[in-house]
Amino acid sequence: MNKILTLFAATILLFGCQNAENETRDTPNETLDKTENGSPDTPTFGIVIHGGAGTILKENMSDSVEMAYRQKLEEAIRAGHEILEKGGTAMEAVTKTINIMEDSPLFNAGKGAVFTHDETNELDASVMDGATLNAGAVAGVTKIKNPIDLAVAVMDDSPHVLLYGEGAQAFAMEQGFEMVDPSYFYTDNRFQSLKRIKDRERTQLDHDAKISHAVDPYSKDSKFGTVGCAALDKNGNLAAGTSTGGMTNKRWNRIGDAPIIGAGTYANNATCAVSSTGWGEYFIRAMVAHDISAIMQYTGASLEEAAREVIQKKVPELGGDGGIVAIDKNGNVSMEFNTAGMYRAHMNAAGDLNIGIYKEE
Ligand code: ASP
Question: Is residue 35 scored above 70 in pLDDT?
Fold first, then answer.
């Protein structure tokens, strides 16, 4: 019996070695990518961010506003890049980069969050660590200045993945988070957007006396500016994070894709890290961020192929729109979107910076 077992173990070992050899031979791209990004001795790293996708058209944008967006994107991505360059973790880079965008009124996250139907601001955020597949998220918080930091605390300091509303804020207080008065999130721009949408909704309702849920509750300009980041650090670890105020005029405590792990955010060291932006209902139904990772893992597709499949086919076929930013384990990046524009930026290990807003750039 012992002899049979020894023979069996030896056979498994032999096959295992052969498979390992085949695996090494079967992945020429990995070697190529590493060589492209620097010598195998110099570990590669990179970072990619978005500041929301939507009907962003050059003709609707003044030069000064466009400049303000480009400057803020650059400030944010440079901060994250510096962390990675100094050997910091992908998770540190993701959260610090997102903090800068959360603190800016330009983006629909933190300070610049959009208004709900009831004229409040309800914020959602999530993070995921590709090394451990740990994740944390918060939804519907109203007093947290930087929801992405609370998402990290949920991941690190609670046994849970997703906390909601008052409970999430009680946890934040226990963790010593600074709470802000909800008025901190008031910006006139966002408030005027809500008023415009509500006026339109009212006119439409008066006109054809339809029940309210038959009216598209989200006009074209209701979902700009969610922020997100995906990063690869020098240790080969991936992380992603997303933070948002959701969609203008949302009601009934609507929660979008941003705090849903697998929809708004996903990271896995075996594949890639992804942050989504767009019409959340569709991104939840298509499980966008996880689907990109799964296509790569199960079919061997590249990040570019997987992202194109999901963003240019699956999401629009359902009727949704939006985009993603993602980085894979070799530092390859995707900034795929099916809308007129997406605020976005990328920096590689060499420090090359690439910022875009509109489709044609
Ligand atoms: N995805 C976000 C949501 O549905 C909105 C956005 O990305 O602009 O809440």
Answer: no
